[in-house]
Design a protein that fits this description.
Blueprint (H helix, E strand, L loop, with lengths): L2 E5 L2 E3 L5 E8 L8 E6 L5 E7 L6 E3 L7 E6 L4 E6 L8 E8 L3 E4 L3 E5 L2
Parallel strand pairs: 2-11
Antiparallel strand pairs: 1-3, 3-8, 4-5, 4-9, 5-6, 7-8, 9-10, 9-11
Length: about 120
């Protein structure tokens, strides 16, 4: 059974940092690109980042470029999102999503709240 479990969310002040983790199981992580997608309160889904299967190529939404960094450790079946210089508009539930290349499996998400 494919499972994606996010962790690392929380309440952070503007300008702070968080590192989200996604634990993957039930499939061979190294065979898949992975997405990070977020949903702010009352808004739709927003793609945040893509990391290719080997981790050597990443893409970011303009809204997070230069502040967020995606990475992965395939041997540990883990995907990460390092978030720096956080802004209130980054407040959202963050999801780890498998790319097949459609978004076929989603985690339950982790809530990130940026507030003073």
């Amino acid at each position: 059974e494919v499972q994606l479990v996010e962790s690392g969310g929380g309440l952070v002040q503007p300008g702070g940092s968080l590192r989200l983790s996604c634990a993957a199981s039930g499939f061979t992580l190294s065979s898949y690109s992975m997405y990070w997608v977020r949903q702010a309160p009352g808004k739709g889904l927003e793609w945040v980042s893509t990391i290719n299967s080997g981790g050597g190529t990443t893409y970011y939404a303009d809204s997070v470029k230069g502040r967020f960094t995606a990475s992965r450790e395939n041997a540990k079946s883990m995907v990460y999102l390092q978030m720096n210089s956080l802004k209130p508009e980054d407040t959202a539930v963050y999801y780890c999503v498998r790319s097949a290349p459609i978004m076929d499996y989603w985690g339950k998400g982790t809530l990130v709240t940026i507030s003073s």
